[in-house]
Amino acid sequence: MTDNGEAAEAGAGAGAAVRPRRADARRNQEALLDAAAAVFVASGVEAPVRDIAAEAGVGTGTIYRHFPTRADLIIAVYRHQVEACAEAGPALLAAGGSPHAALGQWIDLFVDFLVTKHGLAAALRSDQAGFETLHTYFLDRLVPVCSRLLDAAVASGEIRSDLTALELMHGVGNLCIGADSDPRYDARRLVEVLVAGLLRQPR
């Protein structure tokens, strides 16, 4: 029989063992979602699960264990990308480059995200309420980040001040529509033109 001190020490040790395992599981799942996002961006949300498994360096069974259906995986990637975009905005501004350059880099990440988002509607065809909930989450998380980037670029005198974050995000989104169905259409080039067009012209 152990005394209370020994029991407490054993309990603390067990807790310490559980926490690293949970952290490892979280990192592994994030790595899997990063791999799935990369494959979705390159090949669309209907890409074979084996391609995602190969990118992640795991077996297909691991993916199905975490995400039993394709819709589950797409939704998880969607949320993962939203959070990555949300966290990237402040980090890009803090990196020390020009705010306009930070905005351009963030828009690049946003375009990658939109590729996945355009596949979400089909995945949730039978769950309109779920889609609307995710869309609200997307706006709540990303519009303030885009606003902060725009405000910084306006304050630096680099860009015009008559565009809102929601307008810019809608514009980028509209340019990306159809990019996955026409290989001749280069949405990124047009998005670059849009971002470059924000710059103030010398008088």
TrEMBL record:
* Gene3D superfamilies named among the record's database cross-references: Tetracycline Repressor, domain 2
Keyword Protease listed: no
Q: Which SUPFAM superfamilies match?
A: Homeodomain-like, Tetracyclin repressor-like, C-terminal domain
Chain intervals for the UniProt region annotation (Disordered)? 1-22
The Swiss-Prot or TrEMBL record marks DNA binding at 48-67
Per UniProt, the keywords (alphabetical) are:
DNA-binding, Transcription, Transcription regulation
Where is composition skewed (Low complexity) in this entry? 1-18
Q: Which InterPro entries match?
A: Homeodomain-like_sf (IPR009057), HTH-type_TetR-like_transc_reg (IPR050109), HTH_TetR (IPR001647), Tet_transcr_reg_TetR-rel_C_sf (IPR036271), TetR_SbtR-like_C (IPR049445)
Q: Which residues form the HTH tetR-type domain?
A: 26-85
Q: What is this protein called?
A: TetR/AcrR family transcriptional regulator
